[in-house]
Amino acid sequence: MTHQNLTRILPGLLTAVVALAFAFAIHAAVPALPAMTLAVVLGLLAANLPGTAVWTAGRARPGLDFAGKHLMRAGIVLLGLKVSLADVLGLGWLALLLIAGVVVASFAGTYGISRLFRLPADTALLVATGFSICGASAIGAMAAVRRISHRDTVLPVALVTLCGTLAIGVLPLLVHPLQLGTEAFGAWIGASVHDVGQVVATAQTAGPAALALAVVVKLTRVILLAPMVAIAGAEQRLRHRREAGRTGGPTPGRPPIIPLFVAGFVAMVALRSSGWLSAGWLEAAAGLQDVLLGAALFGLGSAVRIRTLLHTGARAVLAALAAWVLIAVLGLAAALLMVQ
To answer: How many C-beta atoms lie closer than 10 Å to residue 21's C-beta?
Structure first.
């Protein structure tokens, strides 16, 4: 990176770091509020308050865009260090099949709902990916493999944040009406809540046993990020090939089936599963991942203009809420079958 480029992005990166420090401070005071969700919310505030909107749209914008794209990818790589194949396989084959079924059904259902509400195909794809797998991280990965504009990820990330925050407040209230045991509740949260931080915030309300199961179920969904983007990448390459065949011209530049950062994610899963890394290294990596993803999410949030969202995003919000209900129902059914 040249000195000129560094000078250009530095104001935005420093802005993201300061905002992230506030997010972590609020999370420390109110643990029920995930730091990643707070990062998005602070980004939204920074983009829409009169005192900060000019800064985030002007001098800080290059650095915030850099964070939203490149720091997001680095955070996805480190996310792999949270996934241990031994923990995943410990769930048993029935649970693994149920979780995979929930991911596939929720992806297809969310995509169908989004298209029913007349959302653009790319937006529908990103919303379905984020809702069914792992929130903003999955949205970033899918956008990269499909070469979807960074700015087009802003609305899907906002919707994932909205519905994940809704889950934190609503799902614990349903434990008693649904007569759920601790294990069933933990499995439900892991199977249906979007982001890892939101899963932790929601499941911890039922105690450590529910939290432990919820995290393992959630990380099993995270593993499916790699095959999902690989399938999307393969489909994109076939489309490019068909277009070249119809026009008779040279094949246009094709995206890789698996982007380098997704391959890095898979490598980190393998490294974590090998048992070579000590607890100290894993803890340090988790802290760095939170910083990278938090800065990225602040960058994405700071690109959202509420006025524009209200004019263009009403259908998207309704679609997201419908998809949220669908995934909650699918996750509950799978959880009850897992713990029966």
So the answer is: 12
Q: Which of 86, 85, 79 is nearest to 287 (CA)?
A: 79
Cα–Cα dist 129/320, whole Å: 12
**pTM of the complete model:** 0.87
Q: Could you give the CA distance from residue 172 to residue 276 in angstroms, rounded to a whole number?
A: 37
CA distance 207 to 185: 10
CB atoms within 10 A of CB 10: 14
Q: At what angle do helices 225-247 and 136-145 cross, to 10 degrees?
A: 20
Quickly list H helices, 171-259.
182-192, 196-203, 208-223, 225-247
Residue that is written with structure tokens 């829409």 in the block? 48
pLDDT per residue over 90-145, tens digit each? 999 999 999 999 999 999 999 999 999 999 999 999 999 999 998 888 998 899 88
In tens, the pLDDT along 189-230 reads 999 998 888 898 899 889 889 999 999 999 999 999 989 988
Cα→Cα distances 296→126, 137, 167, 290, Å: 17, 10, 22, 10
Helix 208-223 with 93-116: angle, nearest 10 deg: 70
Determine the Cα–Cα distance for residues 339 and 316; give it in Å rounded to an integer.
Answer: 34
CB 128, CB 225: distance < 8 Å:
no
Q: How far is CA 182 from CA 84, 178, 190, 203, 229, in A?
A: 23, 12, 12, 9, 33
Digit-coded pLDDT (tens) for 120-135: 999 999 999 999 998 8
Cβ-based neighbours of 50, under 8 Å, separated by 6 or more: none
- Per-residue pLDDT tens for 60-95? 999 999 998 899 999 999 999 998 999 999 999 999
